[in-house]
Amino acid sequence: MSISTEGRTSDRAVICEMCGHEMRQLLESYEGQQDWVCSWCYAVITVLAGTEHASRPVYHPVNRRWEIAEAEGLPEDVSHAYAYFGDTLCGIQMDGMSPSPYRWTTAHEGTCQACKAAAEVIDGRWPQEKRDWDVQVITPVTDPNSLPF
User: Fold this and answer.
1) Second label for 105, Cα 20 to 30 Å away, from 9, 55, 60, 88?
2) Mean pLDDT across the chain
3) Is pLDDT larger for residue 6 or for residue 27?
């Protein structure tokens, strides 16, 4: 993984502040920022260009965290949760998959039960003491075994 700071690129891994697992960079980040998603708890941080600071991930409950997945070929009668990297929480991968502008919810009659089960497991990975709404500025933690910036 790489993180760019002031025009320099590093091969350091970004570590999740929530759970300590390695984060993956989203390729479709907006210009001037880098979005990172934890591979374990799915916390998201955004690093602004020219800085090593980000906002701490904010906890969102299961029914407020995910968008409905959209892709040609997904059944319309089943609602799947989009999981950031072109797949659903239940593991369906399709070319052109993207998040819709609508929230995915477990309350819908056509909710994918495998996505629901995965969302509940992921939700359980967030430490209780970090389930608050306070936005804090943090410095993303990097793996000390990775190359320096």
Assistant:
1) 55
2) 80
3) 27
The answer, yes or no, to whether residue 20 has pLDDT greater than 80, is: yes
CB 13 within 8 A of CB 142: yes
The residue that leads in pLDDT, 17 or 72, is 72
Q: Is 134 exposed, middle or buried (0-12, 13-18, 19+ CB in 10 A)?
A: exposed
Write out the two tokens for 85. 């990297």
Give the list of residues 6+ apart from residue 19 with CB closer than 8 angstroms, or none.
38, 40, 41, 43, 125, 126, 127
- Which residue shows structure tokens 């306070």? 134
Q: Where are the alpha helices (DSSP H) in the chain?
A: 62-65, 113-124
Instruction: Give the Cβ contact number of residue 133 at 10 Å.
Output: 7
CA distance 97 to 30: 18
Least Cα distance to 128 among 72, 61, 77 occurs for: 61
